[in-house]
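Troubleshooting entry. Yesterday's outputs looked truncated, so today I'm pasting the complete records for two proteins to confirm everything comes through intact. If either block looks cut off, that's the bug. Protein one:
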Amino acid sequence: MTTPLLEVKGLKQHFPIKGGFLKRTVGHVKAVDGIDLTVYPGETLGIVGESGCGKSTTGRTILRLLEPTAGEVWFDGKDLATLPKEEMRRMRKDLQMIFQDPYASLNPRMTIRQILLESLMVHNIGTKEERERVIEEIIQVVGLRKEHLNRHPHDFSGGQRQRIGIARALVVKPKLIIADEPVSALDVSIQSQVLNLLKELKKEFNLTLMFISHDLSVVKHLCDRIAVMYLGRVVEIADKRALFDNPRHPYTRALLSAVPVAKRREKRERILLSGDLPSPANPPSGCTFHPRCPYATEVCKTQVPSLAEIGGGQLVSCHLVQSGELPR
């Protein structure tokens, strides 16, 4: 079996809650609460879930833009969570990120040429002439022209700025790109253009992607495997086709039931979840989904289910699925 390029084990990101006159820590927001993930070379792993489930925090913690509270992040044979800062800085050449807001992530005072050259200069890649050639090639690969290099970010539309963000991630030829909801801030017509661009680039450069999104239809278009998150934990991981054809976790079923149906002849029963999303500062005991789950039993309220394989590479974190008691 292929060795994973990225392997995440028990990753946690807990943010302290300060209170009182002395600003002591009175609790923690458990944004990411012990997740396990693998990403294989050349694949695109989608991470989905409703707002506040910890998707973006997971991506930023993997890249150590946020220091992890606990856990391991194995990339190319090294645990990123324990690397010294200088070594981690060198590793960033192989780990790049495409941010959600293409305007806030680009320095408004720099030209596009300066933005793209910066990464090459920081990592000491090529001569001055080689760097110029590389950025001229990459700007055209993402669908812009060489003359755009002398302009500033405010001269471009949202879709064009996101293309620049993609070019900045690609310019150092990384082994892994984490895309944090890269099309959610764009118009629907522009979203499809950027998604098609990412799909073409994936083939051309044999990219390995972690694609974070709340939109299941977008994830279905681009990803090979999908991980579903709920309240800081992964509840199901499966191949794209298996997840859409045969979702097993009750939360995954509820998410998929909310996806609009393209054809009138197709019918899908809408699953409405009771209650509100619990606070990550005070998550429920046992399975965090049990207060909203129509199938929950006593064991769900007291014991945390493990993420276990149920066949065909499909992993589910649910007591009832693992025991065979949940109806298909």
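Protein two, checking that the full record survives here as well:
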Amino acid sequence: MKKILIVGATSAIACACARLWAADRSELFLVGRDAQKLQQTSIDLQARGARAVTTYVMDASDIAAHPVMYEKCLATLQTVDICLIAYGSLPDQYACEQHVEQAMEQFANNGSSMIALLTLLANRMAVQHYGTLAVISSVAGDRGRPSNYLYGAAKAAVSTFCEGLRVRLFKAGVHVITIKPGLVDTPMTRGLALPSVLVAQPDMVARRIVRGINRQVAVLYVPGFWGLIMWLIRVMPQPLFKRLNL
């Protein structure tokens, strides 16, 4: 039985992961902004076998709320085996280009607030000398593309932060896995004109994530072919890259 904290617990990928952990009789502490969705998720997970499910309403972009949430989590679970950080939003790139305030708000939501939360979690987990921090970043952070470079910049910051954090926490017995999904069929991407052959389902993504956590993978592209796709994009010469509409 594992004790698991999930921040952004009502997202499609997080819910799919939670269902797998529920089937293993794990104890779950779910954090999200929508109390009704959290309650619905809790009922579903208990029906699927979760040993216990606790819900906590919090806007993860509110950095001041993080310590109170984690104290409540520890009071409930006593210890944490896995922290899955799965929140975020897909901003309107054009709106972010036109409005500085919106750009900074979206960067905070997808980047700096996550770094703040990871700093808190890392310090607490380093004391217990075990556990896993699983962080959902994105393939968008591998190279700045004109269609979503604000979102990509935030995720690049998270991925780089996790790389350094992984080395630091290794010495404390804590593992950090950076998860980089490609296109996934979720409410965040629904309605976008996406090539169906590249779009994965949340259940498949969740199975890969849970397996990657168990194997203590460092960086997980999911589905795996995104590792090759993003390698090709990263090595593409700048003169060619500038002429593509990506």
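Both blocks look complete. Sanity check on protein two: Strands lie at 3-7, 27-32, 52-57, 82-85, 132-136, 175-181, 219-222.
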